[in-house]
Amino acid sequence: RGTSLDDFRGYRHVKVFREPTTEVREFGGKKVGFVLLPYLHPEEIVRRMKERLGEEVSREQAYEMARALWREWIAERAKGLDADRRILYGHFWVEGVQVAADAYEVVPGEFTFTRDMFPPSVDLAVFGHIHRHQTVWDKVVYTGAPERIDWGEREEAKGFLALDAANASWEFVELPARPMVKVAVTVAMGEDPTAKILAALPDDPKDNLVRLEVTLPEALRPKVEQHRIDERLRGAFHYDVKWLVQRKDLRVAEEFTMDPMRLLRGYVDANYREHPRRAAIETEGEQILKDVIA
Fold this sequence. Notes:
By secondary structure, the protein is of the alpha/beta class. Helices cover about 25% and strands about 30% of the residues. The radius of gyration is 24 Å and the shape is globular. The N and C termini lie close together (about 5 Å). The model has no long low-confidence stretch (mean pLDDT about 90).
């Protein structure tokens, strides 16, 4: 379940920032200056640049202007901090980052931070937004998601960063992650498809992410007792099933999914394909889902 940042306002040790700003705190006898860059949706960045110019601009033009303004703002604010260390916090896509194979966290037309937006005066940049823990250009580190979300993260270590602000250093602390189980079943003529599928599934899928791929002849597809498979997987955190149905010399995929992003895109495609704001509807829907799922 997604959590609104407003839920954290009741804690005295938590401060929520909604606009770019700076903050200076003391750690271990050293002053540490923080440059804080909360997430802005791509559409919001374009809107702000249009308001600043007082005219219509393309997304590409708005992004270039935003990069130039932020490049200057970050450099000036970081340089002006009375601090021994300077750390930048952000929640954006950074040029050169690697994403998971499924990459559902990517918003179409994503705004990207470029390397020249991190001035030499910044000792460390800690970013969120991408699920994979990684470093970019040595100075930028992504915390990564503390739990596995999609199948591209199946083999990735998950955890959090323990930050030593006084020395602008960090340590990755690994956490036990949700199991992701991929099951492939091939059913031949003469076999009981339901029994074979159930035998291949984990006995206790509780809290697991399960992906089931079943290859079987077309004649056996109606004989599958879907309710028994659903019952076995009921305790899973999430599951999806792909049916690879063999029709004579062809193999056709009949897919069932519970992935919210893919369901949203299918819904928009089916109901708003010719709508003039189709892309904006899909983008806004994806952002709402990301806020809920994050």
